[in-house]
Design goal:
Blueprint (H helix, E strand, L loop, with lengths): L7 H4 L2 E4 L15 H5 L2 H6 L4 E4 L3 E2 L11 E5 L6 H13 L3 E6 L9 H6 L13 E3 L19 E4 L4 E4 L14 H16 L4 E4 L16 H5 L3 H8 L5 H11 L8 E5 L5 H8 L8 E3 L2 H4 L17 H14 L7 E2 L9 H5 L7 H14 L3 E5 L20 H12 L4 H11 L36 H6 L4 H14 L2 H4 L1 E5 L6 E7 L4 E7 L5 E4 L13 E2 L6 E2 L2 E4 L4 E5 L2
Parallel strand pairs: 1-2, 1-13, 2-5, 5-9, 9-10, 10-11, 12-13
Antiparallel strand pairs: 3-4, 6-8, 7-8, 14-15, 15-16, 16-21, 17-20, 18-21, 19-20
The protein binds 6-O-alpha-D-glucopyranosyl-D-fructose and calcium ion.
């Protein structure tokens, strides 16, 4: 084992709360802070140590809170600053830390800075955003993720100029090249840190730095509507590391024990370490998108491609991302969040006969890798994709704008709806399933988005009472990780890398070793344990099934069976 520095945020399990869908307290159909506060004992019962709260700020909600119009105010729909304080104290009293979403690549167009900025070319806030005067002609093309025309430059008549928006036109990009903007952001970060929060998740942070010479992009890039191509382009901004270092120097370094988790679309494996290397004083951890790309057809928008997925590919990718942080830096691991479909549907199998085992297996994977797990709310119950069959059910701007685009191009809308059943973000945004009652115990009113009908059998109340449920398995796993520091810091070693069904690895430190055996398939698999692996005892440390067939060092794995053994 290397001489890695220990830190609380390496040892914790992160629980992501998508507040809009977690628990509604007042019957308006939208989750809120009082709702969340009423569930703090539940969160504590999970054994997680850090909550990542999706945006709760003032926002017109073009992109569910990722379009902020006032960073220092709470959206009334979610509650008040007093509610926020109650939440923070409630979490801290339970030994749980809190990080908030820091969305500073862009603001809402309703933010005061932008309202001013667009008024006149000599407004003091003009340079808070990126403007291109129309007399220079059309600006060099930039892709917008959420614009139906995919054009990131929006013409604004008031000043006869275009402004930049990588996301929707209601999300203008901030001009980080302007030192005043950076100071405003640092000030706002201090506001929340002074309240006692424990850090931030930094939204789309790899996009903040722009090359303001606005170079033309290649013909090929111009044609691409494939988000990933543009993520790579946007994440290569010239002064990115300079800004992150400055943010650390000006803000983060003045607060003890805070953590930062950067969302870094487009950052490739060979670029990752500088963000989190201790000597560089930038960030604590990042989460990458490489794993999320597997199983989609390259060059298309979220088009599933079964050929594009294989277990060896998956293992190789997560092994590479382990290795990059083996000596320095530290990684995270996740299989789903509010921007991805449900992990069970995407990486496991949500068919009735497999869903419980598969969701437990995926939890086992996340909680036994050498990285901080980021766990999305509802995955502890094994919630599944809702798979809407009609555009009218969708609420997400990403889906709606892509649909509009395809309509304008006479594209294949049926194919798109099928693709979205697999990959749409709304799949993971349906309300948390608390019980079997008609609105799943989420709300007494009309929910803002349809609740998954499977809540009659997949819900917290039922799972809490069932010792064998995914929920109780998750609780045992977080406990196990606490009891075995080898699962946090121990070296990771992959075995049988080409095996098509089984993912097998060990975690080893100076005093102990654990082998993890995961059957990522719907079949029964006879799996001889790798040579050199001698079990300390036949009794597993963890088993997601009630039976175990083990003879002569060969296990007969049930579909989606997950096993952990102490190794001698
Ligand atoms: O859109 C992408 C590819 O599908 C990503 O590269 C995207 O940049 C990334 O998912 C950013 O996500 C974050 O910022 C968005 C917001 O809609 C997401 O919910 C948030 O997680 C804009 O703020
Ligand atoms: Ca509410």
């Amino acid at each position: 084992m290397g001489t890695i520095d220990k830190a609380w945020w390496k040892e914790t399990v992160i629980y992501q709360v998508y507040i809009r869908s977690f628990k509604d307290s007042n019957g308006d159909g939208i989750g809120d802070l009082p709702g969340l506060i009423s569930k703090l004992d539940y969160i504590q019962s999970l054994g997680v140590g850090l909550v990542w709260l999706n945006p709760i700020y003032q926002s017109p909600n073009d992109d569910n809170g990722y379009d902020i119009s006032n960073y220092e105010a709470v959206l009334p729909t979610f509650g008040t600053i007093a509610d926020f304080n109650t939440l923070l104290t409630g979490l801290h009293d339970r030994g749980i830390k809190l990080i908030m979403d820091l969305v500073v690549n862009h603001t809402s167009d309703e933010h005061m800075w932008f309202v001013e900025s667009r008024k006149s070319r000599d407004n003091p806030y003009r340079d808070y955003y990126h403007w291109w005067p129309a007399e220079k002609g059309k600006p060099p093309h930039r892709h917008s993720f959420f614009d139906p025309g995919a054009d990131a430059w929006q013409y604004d008549t008031a000043t006869d100029a275009y402004y930049l928006h990588y996301f929707s036109k209601k999300q203008p990009d901030l001009n980080w090249e302007n030192p005043k903007v950076r100071q405003e952001i640092y000030q706002m970060m201090r506001f929340w840190l002074d309240k006692g929060i424990d850090g931030f998740r930094l939204d789309a942070i790899s996009y903040i730095a722009k090359d303001t010479n606005w170079p033309e992009v290649s013909e090929e890039a111009l044609k691409s509507r494939y988000h990933n191509d543009w993520s790579y382009f946007f994440s290569k901004g010239p002064r990115l590391h300079e800004y992150l270092h400055e943010m650390n120097r000006e803000v983060l370094s003045h607060y003890k024990d805070v953590v930062t988790i950067a969302e870094t679309p487009g950052v490739e494996i060979h670029e990752a370490l500088p963000f989190v290397h201790i000597d560089r004083q930038e960030l604590s951890m990042l989460y990458h998108f490489e794993g999320m790309r597997i199983g989609y057809l390259h060059g298309f928008f979220k088009r599933p491609d079964p050929e594009g997925y294989s277990l060896p590919l998956f293992k190789g990718l997560y092994t590479d991302w382990n290795d990059i942080f083996a000596q320095e830096g530290w990684g995270t691991i996740y299989l789903g969040n509010h921007d991805q479909p449900r992990m069970l549907s995407r990486w496991g199998n949500d068919a009735p006969e497999f869903r419980n085992a598969a969701s437990k297996l995926l939890m086992t994977f996340l909680l036994t890798m050498r990285a901080t797990p980021i766990f999305y709310n509802g995955d502890e119950l094994g919630m599944a994709n809702i798979k809407f069959d009609n555009i009218r059910h969708y609420r997400d701007i990403e889906t709606l704008s892509m649909y509009q685009y395809l309509q304008s191009q006479q594209g294949d809308l049926d194919q798109f709806i099928r693709d979205q059943q697999f990959g749409a973000r709304d799949n993971s945004r349906t309300p948390f399933q608390w019980d079997a009652t008609p609105n799943a115990g989420f709300t007494t009113g009309e929910p803002w988005i349809t609740i998954n009908a499977d809540h009659v059998f997949v819900n917290e109340e039922a799972q809490d009472a069932d010792g064998n449920s995914p929920l109780n398995y998750f609780r045992r796993l977080t406990q196990l990780r606490k009891e075995h520091p080898v699962l946090v810091y121990g070296d990771y070693k992959l075995y049988d890398k080409d095996h098509e069904q089984v993912y097998c690895y060990t975690r080893t430190d100076d005093i102990s070793s654990i082998v993890v055996v995961l059957n990522f398939s719907n079949e029964l698999v006879h799996y001889p344990l790798p040579e050199g692996i001698v079990l300390k005892q036949a009794e597993p440390l963890m088993n997601n099934e009630t039976s175990l067939q083990l003879e002569d060092n060969t296990v007969v794995l049930l579909p989606w069976q997950a096993l952990l053994f102490a190794v001698g």
